[in-house]
Amino acid sequence: MVKIVTLFLIAMAILAVFGRLRVPRIGSRSSEVRRCRTCGRPLIGKSDCDCGRGAS
């Protein structure tokens, strides 16, 4: 039983290493998001902001 648990944990560690190599920075997209000048909300698509005061 201990051997099975150990092999499972080793397999999970290997998968984690390969996952980090494949997708190194998943949170870096947040810097590319356009935001409203006035309220700071993220702008989706080409439309203006809901606040009606500013865009990008």
Protein architecture, described:
The protein is mainly α and 56 residues long. The longest helix is centred in the N-terminal third of the chain and has 21 residues, at 2-22. It has 1 helix and no strands.
Question: How would you describe this structure in keywords?
Answer:
56 residues; mainly alpha; 1 helix; rod-shaped
Compute the separation of the termini in Å: 58 Å
Estimated structural class: mainly alpha
H/E topology pattern = H
Rg, Å, rounded:
21 Å
Supply the number of helical segments.
1
Query: Could you tell me the number of beta strands?
Result: 0
Secondary structure: elements and pairs:
Layout: H1 2-22
Concise synopsis of the structure shown:
With 56 residues, the chain is mainly alpha-helical. It is 38% helix and 0% strand.
